[in-house]
Specification:
The protein has 269 residues and is of the alpha/beta class. Helix content is 34%, strand content 22%.
Length: 269
């Protein structure tokens, strides 16, 4: 596996490419959210259906999530919400529908092309209380104790230093604030071929932690009332696995119980 900085560089490159694609191109290259897989080196998607949610904007949905964190985030009217890894603005705009005119939504992303796309989408919608900033989750451009609710969707598994990311989350949340984060976790160790591939890191798989380790980091950071609100097993198509594993290894991986899950975790400061 590459170093943390190398991983960040690969993530920025791949997600920058995704930001510049059309919806039709995204639908044809998204792998793991569908029954078929055209090009697993493009990106891996476990996206949920957002289309019926208030605030949904098609141009902002790049099919990069693995849950819907706003559903269990207890966002109230007037809240200040921070979306980590905000992409083209999909979750931020859903959060905007919940905070209303009196709230504020801030999105942070480290990919310039994503920030540009999100700002264009916000301009199209005419929102004055949705803001997007270029920034790193491990060192957020956000003041201490200023956020009511923090959300993130399939992004923290891309962060090399997850302990530092959760410390930053704790720092920016107000006392009494809370987070709702959808992420990928491991139920058991991955085969070496999946663990060591940087592209699968970008696809949110090899960068994932064991569930127990992930939840322990959250607890050690100081968060309370931690709860897994939703979860679902993730199945990688065999055509994806064969890029990294032998035929035998792929068959054994598929035959065993699910090794990967998508979970949405809630916690309070």
């Amino acid at each position: 596996m590459s170093s943390g900085e190398e991983i960040k560089s690969i993530v920025k490159q791949k997600y920058g490419e995704i930001a510049k694609k059309s919806l039709a191109q995204l639908e044809s290259t998204s792998c793991c959210g569908t029954q078929s897989c055209c090009d697993p080196h493009d990106f891996t998607s476990f996206n949920d259906d957002y289309t019926k949610l208030s605030g949904y904007m098609q141009d902002a949905d790049l099919m990069l999530g693995c849950g819907i964190p706003t559903e269990v985030a207890a966002i109230g009217e007037g809240d200040t919400v921070l979306d980590l890894g905000s992409g083209a603005g999909n979750d931020a705009f859903v959060a905007r529908a919940l905070v209303g005119e009196t709230g504020h939504v801030l999105g942070i992303d480290m990919t310039e092309a994503m920030i540009e796309k999100a700002k264009m989408n916000a301009q199209k919608l005419g929102y004055a209380n949705v803001e997007f900033r270029l920034g790193d989750i491990e060192e957020m451009p956000v003041e201490n104790d200023t956020i009511d609710v923090l959300i993130s969707n399939c992004v923290l598994n891309l962060v090399p230093d997850k302990e530092r990311a959760f410390r930053e989350m704790f720092r920016v949340l107000k006392t009494g604030g809370h987070f709702s984060v959808s992420d990928i976790v491991l139920e058991k160790p991955l085969p070496i071929g999946l663990q060591e591939d940087a592209i699968m890191y970008v696809g949110c798989v090899s960068g994932a932690l064991k569930r127990s380790e992930y939840l322990q980091i959250i607890k050690d950071t100081g968060f309370k009332n931690i709860e897994v609100k939703t979860e679902k097993p993730i199945t990688l198509p065999k055509e994806v696995l064969l890029k990294y594993l032998s035929e035998k290894e792929a068959d054994e991986f598929i035959a065993n119980e699910a090794a990967i899950s998508s979970i949405t975790v809630y916690g309070e400061k």
